[in-house]
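ok trying again, last paste got cut off:
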Amino acid sequence: MMKNISRRDMLTGFAAGAASAAGALQSGCAQEGISAAGPEALPKWRNEEFYKDGKLDAEATKQAYYTLMACHGFPIFPVLKTDEFWTLDFALGKFTEVGMGGIFYINNKRDNYMLHDIWLLPGQMIPEHIHVRHEDVAPKMEAWLVRHGMAYIYSFGKGTAEDEERIPATHRKIALARKAAKTLPGQVVRLEVAEQQHWMLAGPQGAIVTEVATYHSMEALRFTHPNIKL
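nice, full thing came through this time. structure:
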């Protein structure tokens, strides 16, 4: 749970984050070989850039998300420079295809609510999963607000040929949710039915998404892909 903060603290943090983002636009993007700000100037990352000695390189993955934030003008808040901001590849070794960055600002079991930000590089997916009932925790319900970029949010239903074609190779044969909602900045998609498989795929400019939900229990999380580990 986040500590209580004053309005002055909030404004100070926002100003520091905005300054950090502005600096990244001038220096971080330049370090990635980008000559102009904006999501159209995002680099084309290669999967091998994110692994060192066969293991996911946390520093490299975070730097990629900082570049994504900067190019979209998303403030890099001080908390995003701490260990509370995490990245993962779901143990599949294909970070540019299956991976994410995230932070839980709040995950409150007693009062049953959560606030979560998600970052996805261009073409990156959160793999298909389901939130089941577990002991005293009800199945998680959630909704997603796209802030920047675009995301295809997949759920049950008959998808189009395009929906089928964009499912990444790692999931094409096993995904159960095959109908996509193309979700643009300012648009919200919600999970309509509890205990239903769903997943998310970023568009060509990546995606920055805010999730609001009921309490998130790791013990209640189940993935469709048999080789995924957290």
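cool. The first helix runs from residue 7 to 31. The helical segments are 7-31, 58-72, 161-165.
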